[in-house]
Amino acid sequence: MSGPRIVAAQIKPNSKKGPLVEVLEDGTLLLYVRAPAVEGKANKAAEELLAAHLGLSKRSVRLISGQTSRHKRFEVQD
């Protein structure tokens, strides 16, 4: 079992396309979530979407930076 890793992501809140994960050329994940960017709803949805995409539990993914930005970093515990 390895330690935590950092995953860079961009988030698209209020997306009709979501929930969906795309991988950009630089390895950054693009997370489309339906939740609005209000009261942390989009951040929570992004954590849940990333966990599902990686096949992990919701508790294994935690937002560590970018709470109010579209560019976010998540800590992922395998």
What this model shows, in words?
The protein has 78 residues and is of the alpha+beta class. It contains 1 helix and 5 strands; from the N terminus they run E-E-E-H-E-E. Strands 2-3-1-5-4 form a 5-stranded mixed sheet, with helices on one face. The termini are close together. The relative contact order is 0.28.
The average pLDDT is 94
β-strand amount: 25-35%
Large-scale geometry: globular
What is the H/E string? EEEHEE
Q: Report strand order across the widest sheet.
A: 2-3-1-5-4
Separation of termini?
A: 7 Å
Q: What composes the largest sheet? A: 5 strands, mixed
Structural class label? alpha+beta
Assign a percent range to the helix content.
Answer: 10-25%
The oligomeric state is single chain
Radius of gyration: 11 Å
Number of E-state strands: 5
> What ranges have pLDDT less than 50 throughout 5 or more consecutive residues?
none
Family: Belongs to the UPF0235 family.
Protein name: UPF0235 protein FCG67_03035
Pfam families: DUF167
Topology:
Layout: E1 5-12, E2 20-23, E3 29-32, H1 41-54, E4 61-65, E5 71-76
Parallel strand pairs: 1-3
Antiparallel strand pairs: 1-5, 2-3, 4-5
InterPro entries: DUF167 (IPR003746), YggU-like_sf (IPR036591)
Protein name: UPF0235 protein FCG67_03035
Pfam families: DUF167
